[in-house]
Amino acid sequence: MGDPAGIGPDITLAAWVARARRDLPTFVLYGDPDTLSARARKLGLDVPLEPVASLADAASVFARALPVWPLPIRGPDVAAADAAVVAAIEAAAAAAGAGAALALVTNPIVKRTLNFAHLAYPGHTEFLAELALRQGARTRPRPVMMLACDELRVVPATVHIPLSAVPTALTRPLLLETVRITASALARDFGIAAPRIAVAGLNPHAGEGGLIGREETELIAPVVVELAAAGIAVTGPHSADTLFHAEARRAYDAAVTMYHDQALIPLKTLAFDSGVNVTLGLPFVRTSPDHGTAFALAGTGKARPDSFIAALRLAGEIGRRRVGSDATLNP
Q1: Which end of the chain has fewer CB atoms surrounding its CB within 10 Å, N or C?
Q2: How many CB atoms lie within 10 A of CB 98?
Q3: Which of 95, 40, 35, 85 is nearest to 65 (CA)?
Q4: Where is 325: in which H helix or E strand?
Q5: CATH class of segment(s) 1-141+275-331
Q6: Which 8-state DSSP code applies to residue 150?
Q7: How sure is the predictor about 331, in pLDDT bands with cuts at 50, 70 and 90?
């Protein structure tokens, strides 16, 4: 459900209304039924809710009602709402991790939610990595954020840190692992047999041979050479200002960039309403809409469900592909 005061309930209800027209996979909402009912009334949406105790029941329910795994908000204060949000994330992640669900699609929350629940995680992604570890992962997963749309896939090597901290945060192990995880995900989750990855430079004009910074010559280029020698189809470092036009995009399947805005500006320019956040490197599939809670839009009818719908579709596609891959590997 995401933050109950945000647009998570709105876009979920709107997606169910559009389920047949948009050819959506069956989904179950983990959250508070009273919040959903109240939001549906406020939006003027006719959305019957039907509690389910087993995900196996969802398929028979979905055509006539939105299946809900009920996790009530037990109190009027913000802390009660945050506790319910965390419980929903834990329960849904457990279902995805156990294979009861093909995938997990998370609606937006704010960092405050995990802090109020006394969890020391900056957001969904790090919390999900911890949950995967609790579920039996042999080592802590290294989650990697990919933003995807029809025209582009981008992976920032560093994410929510100050721009001034990026040069120090960029290391050889970080770049090697990020590109390797990206290549593996493109093959397994996106069905690309021989994925091609373009790596951006950090500085303007990719450093111009050291004239505008030395990160490209001393760090990024040697990493690209090492990855190419290992058999990954990787090129770079490329100047970021020429990496994202239509002709350039035809030369790669994903671009690995050095920092957050270097990746998200082109993606959101191309697909502001339909981009999807995909977490690579987890043992289960997780996607989310590429936007925040948008508190000001909650209950107004102005929230667009396009990104959530795209996240549902992509989650279903990746989930089915993983099931097929695992069946082939383990008949």
Answers
A1: C
A2: 12
A3: 40
A4: helix 306-329
A5: alpha beta
A6: S
A7: very low
